[in-house]
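PROTEIN DESIGN WORKSHEET
SECTION A - STRUCTURE
LENGTH: 374
TOKENS:
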């Protein structure tokens, strides 16, 4: 079938993207699903920093690539062997296909699925197949999803069936921002009721993490960002304290305000400076976690003596340490019960044709989450 899709052919083009147009809306040929694959109609797709990192070259991807990884969709066609889904089912996409049988999956660490990572790095689906061609040339899949398209063929292991009680626009946010942000708090850090938490970086993932801390019953929730408007939003979402990261004395101010630091400091900005600040405000015996994907080659210096003498822990969190089939329905249930109001993170919506302008707003910090409606 012939469809419209946003294709990235060259990384590192200059800003603003509204002028350089790194994403080109092209007509592509999409082949049908193979065994254990499904054809979906994309309903909504979030504009995320992980997409931006492919556009600006921070995290190179095999090109050309049909971009987009955070999405909701409707099942249109089932490949052979898919018996647990039906045409018309609503699904949320997982940006890492989970095979379920590799050593990591076998011990419950689906976010570290080895075949899934290999397929994403190669620009293929979990089976190793590609289904996108443009003018006779193969185009790579982004994270096994390629959500900035009218339709997509994906692995059955890349979709999670959801209830139709949630709108597909809101559901899209659960494919990355909510899964990563809430999962980092709940799964990676295991924040207990009454614990103190700091979130460094208040994009869609960071604010989702803040909502996760509220839902977990954290006693003190410290919001930290470089933009005052995001701090103001964080305070309305349940943060108890807010600090500008641009203050030269930010670390000391936060330590003083929290009586020596927080139990869990979570870096969500993807920068060494943000991680340094998170580590500096973690109290003795506390955990510093990072879910921000920094530019390739970025290093975080950690004093070895501090790790030992203060019994500190440093944790990485990918995909919120989630098992998508378990956690996405759980988080949606919390949303439907009013305990996880992620719809308040939705900054704006727009058509596929305005996607480059949407990435300009994301890059400037003006948008928390923009969702492309197909």
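SECTION B - SEQUENCE
RESIDUE ASSIGNMENT:
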């Amino acid at each position: 079938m012939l469809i419209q899709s946003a294709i990235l052919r060259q990384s590192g083009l200059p800003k603003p993207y509204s002028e350089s147009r790194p994403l080109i809306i092209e007509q592509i040929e999409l082949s049908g699903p193979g065994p254990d694959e499904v054809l979906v109609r994309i309903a909504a797709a979030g504009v995320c920093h992980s997409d931006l990192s492919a556009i600006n070259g921070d995290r190179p991807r095999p090109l050309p690539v049909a971009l987009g990884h955070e999405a909701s969709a409707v099942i249109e066609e089932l490949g052979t062997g898919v018996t647990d889904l039906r045409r018309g089912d609503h699904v949320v996409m997982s940006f890492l296909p989970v095979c379920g049988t590799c050593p990591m999956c076998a011990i419950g660490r689906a976010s570290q699925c080895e075949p899934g990572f290999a397929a994403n790095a190669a620009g293929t689906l979990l089976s190793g197949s590609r289904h996108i061609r443009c003018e006779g040339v193969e185009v790579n899949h982004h994270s096994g999803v390629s959500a900035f398209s009218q339709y997509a063929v994906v692995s059955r292991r890349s979709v999670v069936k959801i209830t139709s009680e949630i709108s597909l626009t809101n559901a899209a946010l659960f494919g990355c921002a909510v899964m990563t942000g809430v999962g980092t708090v709940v799964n990676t850090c295991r924040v207990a009721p009454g614990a103190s938490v700091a979130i460094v970086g208040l994009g869609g993932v960071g604010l989702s993490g803040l909502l996760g801390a509220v839902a977990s019953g954290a006693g003190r929730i410290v919001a930290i960002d470089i933009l005052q408007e995001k701090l103001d939003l964080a305070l309305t979402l349940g943060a108890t304290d807010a600090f500008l990261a641009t203050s030269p004395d930010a670390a000391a101010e936060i330590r003083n305000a929290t009586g020596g630091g927080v139990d869990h400091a979570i870096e969500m900005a993807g920068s060494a400076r943000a991680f340094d600040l998170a580590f500096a405000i973690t109290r003795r015996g506390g955990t510093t976690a990072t879910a921000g994907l920094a530019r390739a080659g970025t290093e975080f210096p950690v004093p070895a003596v501090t790790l030992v003498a203060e019994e500190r822990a440093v944790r990485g969190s990918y995909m919120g340490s989630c098992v998508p089939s378990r956690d996405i329905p759980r988080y949606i249930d919390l949303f439907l019960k009013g305990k996880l109001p992620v719809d308040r993170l939705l900054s704006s919506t727009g058509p596929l044709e305005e996607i480059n302008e949407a990435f300009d707003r994301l890059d400037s910090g003006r948008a928390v989450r923009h969702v492309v409606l197909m």
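SECTION C - NOTES
The chain has two domains: 2-175+341-373, 178-320.
The chain has a mean pLDDT of 97.
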